[in-house]
Amino acid sequence: MPTYVYKFIDSGETIEVQQAFSDDPLTEIAHPVDGVLKPVKKVFTPVGVSFKGGGFYKTDSGSSSSSSSAAASSSTTPAAPAAPAASTD
After folding, report:
1. In whole angstroms, what is the distance from residue 19 CA to residue 25 CA?
2. 76: left (phi > 0), else alpha (psi -120 to 50), else beta?
3. Which of 4, 14, 41, 44 gets the most CB atoms within 10 Å of its CB?
4. Residue 10 lies in a domain
5. Does 15 fall in a domain?
6. pLDDT of 47
7. Percent with pLDDT over 70 in the chain
């Protein structure tokens, strides 16, 4: 179940609540200190995305040894012979 952040309107404190996707947003939550129901507002936070693995973009930060070893292996491969030029008789 996802965790949502709610902010108490009067005090500005935040609280995390686990809710199902199908649940409606809460409008009141019992304060954890005194147990009194207080109005809350749902807080929308940015989602952190992390792409793990190799080869997403050329500009990815990471070790440059993999790109230099790929270049080195391609330079050791013999070049294909050039095709003869076509004559235009």
Report:
1. 9
2. alpha
3. 4
4. yes
5. yes
6. 79
7. 60
